[in-house]
Every structure is written in C-alpha cells, then in structure tokens.
Write a structure and sequence with these properties.
It is built from five helices and nine strands. The strands form four sheets. A three-stranded antiparallel β-sheet has the order 3-8-9, covered by helices on one side. With about 250 residues, it is of the alpha+beta class. The termini are far apart. Residues about 25-30 have low confidence and may be disordered.
Length: about 250
Amino acid sequence: MIRLPQALKIPPAMQLTGALTNRLSIRPHMSGGFTLVELLVVISIIIVLMGLLFPTIRIIQDAANRTRAKTVVQGLCAAAKSYNNEYGKWPEPANDQDLVLTFNGLVNPVTGLKATTGQAANDNPRALRLMEIQSKDVTVRVLGEQTPLALYDPWWTPYAYCFDNGKKGSYYLGPLQNGRPSNLQSWPDTTANDNQVPVPFKDDSSIKTVITEGYAFFSDGPDTRTGTALSDPGGKSTTKAYEDDIRSWR
C-alpha cells in the first residue's frame, strides 16, 4: 500500500465537505422530472393530436352506422319477400312492435317470450323466423327509461315501413326530441295488391311518387328528419332531410 506524505493527506473534515459537494452537484443532473414549461408543451401537443383525431373517429363511426342501417334495411326487404312467399300476402302490423314480433317468429327479443295472441300472431300463425332480431336491435335507453319495442336504426329512430296491403305503415317526421323519436306519421297504402307503395314525402331527387314493390322501408339517417325540410334549420347547411336517408328503393 502506498502511503501519502503527511503534508498531502486531506483532513477528514475536508473529505466530508468534498463528498457533500459532489452529491449536491450530481443530484440535479440525475433528476428525471419535467419542468413546468415542458409539461405544458406535452399537454398542448396531446390536445392538438386529440383535436385532429376526433373528426376522423366521427367520420369512421358515421360510415359504420350507415353500413349497419343499409344491412338492416336489406334484411327487412328479405324478410318481407320471405313472408310473401310463405303466406301469399303482406303482413298487416298495427305498430312497430307487431313488425318486430312478426318477423322474429313472434318472439320478443327482450323478454324471450312468445306472443300467442294479437295482430302479430294473426299475421304469422306458423311463427316463422323471418329475420334474426336481437335485444340490442330493439332497445335504446333514453333518460334512464327503456323505449317501446321497435327495430331502431343507429340514430335511435324506428325504421319506417309500409306494405302493399291497403293498410297503414308509419314513419317519424323527426327530429329527435329529448332523445326520443317525434312526430309519428301514418304511411297509408291506398290500394292493396297492386304491387305499389306510395312515396310518403316529396323528394326533390326524383319525380317518383310510387315504389314498385310490395313493401318499402327506410331510415331517416343521422339527421333523424324526413322530407324536404332542411336537415339543419337555421344553420348554414342547405342539405335536405331526405338526402341522408337509407332506403329500400332508389
């Protein structure tokens, strides 16, 4: 072991002071925390990124909802055709609930119970399952309440319907009020079995007044409005309410 000359030895007090100095000088450089400015910059960047992301999510969600609505309308058309092939006539539902029960083999999708009386039982006496309707398709919780049984579109409005049976279908003129569909309208078919259903509202995109099928279905779309009135009354948009509808006819 090499011994230092007595003159070069560091007194213990000075050694302790040097150790403390080294620790104090190193600590600030070892800290992994953010300064207030750095933290604000990070938060600002996150807010900007979220602002850019939300519109994209909205567009994707709207496209998915429209695809879903088109699929349901196609399913309703297929169910109507199957019904006519089986019974040689068109159903005569008195309301949205009857339509659901008739196409779903008289089974209530929410309770699982089977209807044995009423208009739906009369329309579908063999209880044929013409369309797969699940609980999630017929229930919308609004303001803590469960809405009446109906087949709802992604924007919480029942799908409109009418059959070539000389009876009445229905649609909602809209828009939603307090989260509920509003302005229920009658959609009458004036002459049974003429392979025609009337267009229920004025449509600037076509001069067509009748639908040459034994049935018709549509969704009001994202604006939850029907007809030629503006989708956004009082706003800057001049889009007509019918322009975002999803229909069974063109």
